[in-house]
TrEMBL record:
Keyword Cell division: yes
A Gene Ontology term for the protein's cellular component: plasma membrane
Family statement: Belongs to the ABC transporter superfamily.
Domain ABC transporter: start-end pairs: 2-226
Role of this protein: Part of the ABC transporter FtsEX involved in cellular division.
Entry protein name: Cell division ATP-binding protein FtsE
A Gene Ontology biological process term: cell division
Gene that produces this protein: ftsE
Record keywords, A-Z: ATP-binding, Cell cycle, Cell division, Cell membrane, Membrane, Nucleotide-binding, Transport
Subunit structure: Homodimer. Forms a membrane-associated complex with FtsX.
Annotated membrane topology: Peripheral membrane protein
Length: 227
C-alpha cells in the first residue's frame, strides 16, 4: 500500500510542486494520475520511488516511511517498486542484458537469472528479440523491455511516468493491455498520463492533480481535460 499524509514538495527554487497531498493506494489497484503540465504529476510519482523526498509530510510504502529509511535500506524498498519512463531509459546492451542486469544488481543466484529473464521477456512478447539492442528495437519494443526490467523482481508496485508518451496509438494500446495483464497478476500500477483516449476507455481510478493539489479522485473516472 502507498500512503501520503499532508505531503508537500517545495523545490530549492521555491516552487511548491505539491501542496498538502493526502492519498491511499491499495494493493492491486490501477490508478491514473492526470492533470495539466506542471501540475505536479511527475513530482508525485518521484516521491513514490524516492527520486525526491517530501519537504513536509509522510510517504509510506508498505508501511515504510521513505524519508526515514537509511541509505543502505533503499535498495530493499526500491526492489518492491518497478519504474517505467516515457523515454524508456534502457542501457546500451541487449534486451536480455537490460533485464538480467536488474537481477544481477540484487545478487540473484546465477542459475536463476536466465530462466527468469526468458520468462519475463516472453510475458512482454519479446522472446524472439532477446538479443537485440535498443537501437534495433521499435519504440513499442523498447518500452516492453523497460517493462520487463521493471517487473523482473516481482515488485509490488509498478510506477509509470507517461509510459505511452513516445508511442504511436497502436503501440500505446499494446503497452496498456500489457499493463492491464500485469495488474491482473497482482501488481499495483500508478501511471501518470496525458492519454485521454486510454483513460476514457480502459476505466480505472483517476486522480487529478492541479497546481499541486488533488482536485478529483474517482473510481472509473474520466480524463477530464481537452489536451
Ligand atoms: P507535471 O509532471 O505535472 O508536469 P512536475 O511535477 O514535473 O509536473 O512539476 C511541478 C512543478 O514543479 C512545475 O512548476 C515544475 O517546473 C517544478 N519542478 C519540477 N521538478 C523540479 C525541480 N527539480 N526543481 C525545481 N522545480 C521543479
Ligand atoms: P517529466 O517529463 O518527467 O515531467 P520534466 O521535463 O518535467 O520531466 O523534467 C525533466 C527533469 O528536469 C526532471 O528531472 C525534473 O525534476 C527536472 N525539472 C523539471 N522542471 C524543473 C525546473 N523548473 N527546475 C529544475 N529542474 C526541473
Amino acid at each position: 500500500m502507498i500512503e501520503m499524509h499532508d505531503v508537500w514538495k517545495v523545490y530549492d527554487n521555491g516552487v511548491e510542486a505539491l501542496r498538502g497531498i493526502n492519498v491511499k493506494i491499495d494493493r492491486g489497484e490501477f490508478v491514473y494520475i492526470v492533470g495539466p503540465s506542471g501540475a505536479g504529476k511527475s513530482t508525485f510519482i518521484k516521491l513514490m520511488y524516492r527520486e525526491e523526498k517530501p519537504t513536509h509530510g509522510v510517504v509510506l510504502i508498505n508501511g515504510v516511511n521513505v524519508k526515514r529509511v537509511r541509505d543502505w535500506k533503499i535498495p530493499h524498498v526500491r526492489r518492491k517498486i518497478g519504474v517505467v519512463f516515457q523515454d524508456f531509459k534502457l542501457l546500451n546492451m541487449t534486451a536480455y542484458d537490460n533485464v538480467a542486469f536488474a537481477l544481477e544488481a540484487i545478487e540473484t543466484p546465477r542459475r536463476k537469472i536466465r530462466p527468469r529473464v526468458e520468462e519475463v521477456l516472453e510475458l512482454v512478447g519479446l522472446s524472439d528479440r532477446m538479443f537485440a539492442y535498443p537501437s534495433q528495437l521499435s519504440g513499442g519494443e523498447q518500452q516492453r523491455v523497460a517493462i520487463a526490467r521493471a517487473i523482473v523482481n516481482n515488485p509490488s508496485f509498478l510506477i509509470a511516468d507517461e509510459p505511452t508518451g513516445n508511442l504511436d496509438p497502436e503501440n500505446s494500446w499494446d503497452i496498456m493491455y500489457l499493463l492491464e495483464e500485469i495488474n491482473k497478476r497482482g501488481t499495483t500500477i500508478v501511471m501518470a498520463t496525458h492519454n485521454k483516449e486510454i483513460v476514457n476507455t480502459l476505466r480505472q481510478r483517476v486522480i487529478a492533480i492541479e497546481q499541486g493539489i488533488i482536485v478529483r479522485d474517482e473510481e472509473g473516472g474520466e480524463y477530464g481535460y481537452e489536451d
